[in-house]
Write a structure and sequence with these properties.
163 residues, mainly alpha
Length: 163
């Protein structure tokens, strides 16, 4: 993890055009954006803070969450860009439990299992990783449903009123 001052220094190098910061610290992203030029791209890698990072000036994100909810992540980006901040915030909030379960507990095996649950091919995990337990799969099903994500046979819809 590089400090904001180091990133700002590196942003002046002609071969460095941006950074992906996965630390989830929105204040740090804001510092970097404020202190670098418009030609330096700051991307967040933390799905739980995608919307707040955009509000601080991040250019976008490279999110593990987007493997499971690409349309929702794009929708957050589009709504933010169009000034629909409340709708983007609500959608972000709906995705936080899924992102937290994946990033804090299950990791790549959870992404693979969630893809399988959604009707895509996640496939087996590589050793030494272990597949999620039945309990973890049940938790995944619950947070996927809570996030409004359905099998690939059903399309994603942004959801409720005002979104």
């Amino acid at each position: 993890d590089m400090g904001a001052a180091t990133v700002v220094d590196l942003s002046r190098h002609p071969n460095i055009i941006g950074i992906k910061d996965s630390g989830g610290r929105v204040a740090k992203i804001g510092q970097i954006v404020q202190r670098t030029g418009a030609d330096f791209f700051v991307l967040t890698g933390a799905g739980a803070t995608f919307f707040p990072a955009l509000t601080m000036g991040a250019s976008g994100g490279i999110l593990a969450l987007a493997n499971l909810a690409p349309a929702a992540c794009i929708e957050i980006f589009r709504r933010h860009a169009a000034g629909g901040w409340e709708a983007a915030r609500k959608l972000q909030a709906r995705l936080i439990p899924l992102n937290t379960l994946i990033s804090s507990k299950l990791g790549p095996p959870g992404i693979k299992a969630a893809l399988d649950i959604l009707g895509y091919y996640g496939g087996p995990v590589r050793p030494p990783l272990l597949p999620p337990s039945d309990g973890d799969r049940a938790a995944l099903r619950a947070v996927l449903a809570e996030a409004g994500l359905r099998s690939k046979a059903q399309s994603y819809t942004p959801g409720g009123e005002g979104e």
